[in-house]
Amino acid sequence: MNYPSVIEQLRKKEYISRDLHVDVLRLDKLHPIVSGNKWFKLEGHLRQTPLTPGSAIITFGGAWSNHIVATAYTAQELGLRSIGIIRGERPSQLSVTLKDAITYGMTLNFVSRKEYSQKDQPAFLQHLAANYPGAYIIPEGGSGEAGIVGCSEILRHIDSKSYTHILCAIGTGTTFLGILRASTPGQEIIGIPVLKGISSLKDIDGDKFLTPQRSARGRIIPDYHFGGYARHPQQLLDFMNRFYHETGIPSDIVYTGKLFYALEDSISRELYPSHSRLLVIHSGGLQGNRSLSPGQLDF
Ligand SMILES: *Cc1c(COP(=O)(O)O)cnc(C)c1O
Fold first, then answer.
1. Are 7-32+145-291 and 37-142 equal in CATH topology?
2. Ligand 1 pocket member 255 (CB < 6 A)
3. Cβ(30) – ligand 1 distance below 6 Å
4. The whole model's pTM is what?
5. CA 76 to CA 57: how far, in whole Å?
6. CA–CA separation, 241 vs 257, rounded Å?
7. How far, in Å, is the centroid of ligand 1 from the Cα of 170?
C-alpha cells in the first residue's frame, strides 16, 4: 500500500484565505471492497490468533455493514470460513451488502434485535463459541484492543507529525482511539460521532484504552450526527453532492459525509488557528450509499 499517494490536498479558496492547509487521507482508495479503516481493524484482530486454512471467524453487523462485507472478503482471500451474525429477522429481499457477503462465502445467521443486543455478553459469546468450536470472534465493527492496535498503524506510513489537527468519524471509536495512540505531542485529534450519545472520551472507553497524556490530545465534537446513526436528511445529501462537485471527493451517508460537513462547519466557526495543518481521514464506506435510491447522490 502506497500511502503518500492517497493524500490529497483540498485547495479551496476559503481554506487558503484562512491560511489553513487541509489534506484528506483517502483510505477509501486503498481497496475497492475492504473499505478504509476496516482493513486496519481486521489486520489487528487477525494478528491475534493463529488461523489455519479452514478456521472460522465470526463477526456481527447490520444489513448495510461495511465491516461485514470487509470481513467476508478478507476471510475468503485468506482461505478462512466466515460467519456473520446479522441484526434483525431475515428480510424477504436481502440488501446488496449482504448479497455481496454471501458471494464472498460468508454464512449469514440472522438473529432478533433483542438477541443481537446481547452480542457482547459473556453468556452469548460462550454459546457462540460452543456452536462454532475454534472460531475467532471479532466484535461488532472490529472494535476492542486489537482493533485499536490495528488502527494505530493508519498514521504509520505518512508524515503525520506535520499535522496539527487530525479529524476522523467515530462509530465505535476504535479508529479514533488508534489514531490518538499514534499521535504526537502538540497534535489535536478530533472525533466526530455519527450517532447520538457520544460526547466525551468516557463514552468510548477512552480511559480504559489510553494514557492520560494521549487522552488529553483528544477532542470530541458531538454536534454532527444529523439525528442519529445512519440518519441522512436531505440537508446532508445536498452537502455531500456540493462537496463532491467542489473537491471531487465522494463521501458516504453514515460516516464520512458527516465528517466532511463537520470539517467545513468547524472551519467556518474558526476552530483552527491560522497556519494549522489539518488531516481528515476518509475512512471509506462508499458501498453503504447503495441503500439510497438512484439519483439521490451525484456520484
Ligand atoms: C466503520 C466505519 C467508521 C467508524 O469506525 P470506528 O472505528 O467504529 O469508529 C468510520 N468510517 C467508515 C467509512 C466506516 O465504515
1. yes
2. yes
3. no
4. 0.97
5. 11
6. 10
7. 6
